[in-house]
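ok so for the tutorial part 2 we go from a plain amino acid sequence to predicted structure tokens. step 1 is just haveing the sequence, like this:
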Amino acid sequence: MAKSSAHRGPDGTNTLIQEHIGFGHSMLHTTPESLTEILPHTDSETGLVITADARIDNREELFNKLGIRQSSSLPDSQLIIYTYKKWGVDGFLHLLGDFAFALWDPLKQQLICVRDYIGVKPFYYHFTPEQFLFSSEIKQLAEHPDVILSPNEGMVAEYLFFSFCSKTETLFQGINRLSPGHYLTVSHQGLTSHRYWSFNSTKQIYYKKSEDYTNHFLEIFNKSVTSRLRSSTPISIELSGGLDSSCVVGMAHNILRLKNKPAPVVYGMVFPGLPFDESLYILAVSKEHNISVNLIDSQHFNEPQWQKQVHKTYEPPDIPNISMRNALIKQVTNSGSRILLSGIGGDEWFSGSGFPYLDLLKNKRYPALFSHLRYSFSQNQLHTIKRFLFNILWPLVPHAIRRNLCNKNNKLFPAWISPVFVNRSNIREKILLSDQRTTSSNLGNLLQNTIIAMGTHTFFLETMDRYHAIAKLEYRSPFLDRRIAEFSFSVPEYEHNLQGEIKKILRQKQNHLLPELIRKRQSKADFSFFFGKAFDSYSLTEKSEKMLSSEVGWIEQDKFLSALNDKQKAFKENAFHRGNKNWEIWFALALETWVKSTR
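step 2 — the prediction. this is what the tokens look like for a chain of 599 residues:
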């Protein structure tokens, strides 16, 4: 199992066996403290054993809380042990950063497995009454002779419908994921899951001036970026030209400049001659902060080796708009950097739900409500009425009625999905239950609620971790800091998005990180082109070739091939665009490759 994750550990792989426990670890040095770290580690005082994929960002705060002398050489894994020794499982709430770790407590004869609040670091496991196995990747578990791989149709349905409801299931029966913000305890009594963190949905911050929210954000954002600049190798940052990555580049550059440290190495993907080329915005950031940007021409698409990817990871192949970054990732790794910062998370936390009505009503901001409705009405009358009624009334609809409406709405499912499979996979009920968790009359913030309750974002983060781990990189995003997310969740909805001003907090004049061109930007690049390229390169045109997905009853082959052929034709005729089931078609192709490669 340890050898199968060698790509995650270019700095060595170790194992430790003690009686009936065995720990493994693959080391990737990314922080100064990790250079002398040896994992698995046994605490000499208590016998506690830890193995971890962890970066703890509030080290100074923890040293003060623990009452111990600060040490620049104490690895993060040992800081976790100190935290557990002082507070037990209650100490996990004190940890900030990206982490997944397992801790053996010999006194309690108990294994404790922990995952960070939103799931940046993955944690997979396989449990039977006789043994418990855990790993950072599914393939590590598959190396164990007792793990039998067979498809989990419940999760297959979530893939095919592009509706990720579960954060604990995987595509394989018997292989599970530890849900973000949770920890597991494993003992002779069995396995128990516990939540140690959740958003406080009742906490709200109210300022008289909108710019005060931006000032508050910048204060936290400075701390978040600073903690992610802790590195034993040169810092690399991915710049897309959007608001989020531009903020990261600007803040990182300012922090390092004030500390007289080398500027970060910035990389930007450009697509000359294509409509989604963002060279103009990337160069605006370069000029604003007087930094050079490595421009990488990424328009050329090499046909992915999908089956090779599946054999390497036991997961479906990479999403096309992730694979398009291959040239950038290659340059980053060739530079000697092991850290890549990004702006992911900004969309999720700061775009808002677009439904400020409840917040405006509750806070008696009637002029602002009237102004927003008037603006929205001028843009699209029918759409405004629908959004208003949905936002106000849908949370009040009884659960039973929502269930019936969901069951009758066949438009939820792609036409090529077998109706028999829809029924046996119970996907309707899954979607309904997730809807029950996320729809609430709790004053907006519906988008953040959805992200926390649903599994789509968790799936994406696990995909990004796996993709970068293969390249021996650690992917860090300041916007995924818990402090940033909690702040965003406590901001009134109307401060996120009012009168079409998406990401209002980031656009304020107080945010000196952005050039004016990007501050005023309302557009967002559409990379659907790469889905079209993927569809065009996929060879599944032989009508006589039986798709395995069809043989096992997941899809109806003729209907699916018809939809795929339409996409291929549209791409050849330069009529390809976002939406219209791009994601569902991609996941059907990806699952076909997966089931062929893992059967």
